Amino acid sequence: AVVELGPDLPRVAPLSTVACAAICNSLVAETAALLLASGVRPPVWTSGNVPGGPEANAAYVEQYRRRWGSI
After folding, report:
1. Residue 54: predicted pLDDT
2. Residues near 4 by Cβ (< 8 Å), separated by ≥ 6?
3. Which 3 state secondary structure label does DSSP give 12?
4. How many angstroms separate the CA atoms of 26 and 44, rounded?
5. Coil, strand or helix at 3
6. CA–CA separation, 32 and 24 (whole Å)
7. What is the pLDDT of residue 34?
8. Burial of 35 (0-12, 13-18, 19+ CB in 10 A)
């Protein structure tokens, strides 16, 4: 943890979270690239903050709705 809140208090904001996020996103990117190289289009959830994102994701919601149960 890198942020000191004060005397006799534990530090907060561990840097391991940043490292873990970077590693996880690297694995996702490499997996997607390997799938594409194998001729498989990976299912990629699109951010709802970009144009067309919610519409692109609606197809996944319908495709996998049965697996999610009642949501």
Report:
1. 94
2. 11
3. strand
4. 14
5. strand
6. 12
7. 98
8. middle
Nearest to 48 by CA among 60, 39, 38, 40: 60
Where is 26: in which H helix or E strand?
Answer: helix 16-37
Which residue, chain included where needed, has tokens 């005397």?
7
User: Quick check: 42 and 35 in contact, CB under 8 A?
Assistant: yes
d(Cα 57, Cα 44) in Å, to the nearest integer?
A: 9
pLDDT > 70 in the chain, percent: 97
| Closest listed residue to residue 45, CA positions, set 37, 54, 36 | 54
- Residue 37 in tokens: 């190289």
pLDDT score of 71 more than 70: no
**C-beta of residue 38 within 8 angstroms of C-beta of residue 51:** no
From CA 9, how far away is CA 44, in angstroms rounded? 42
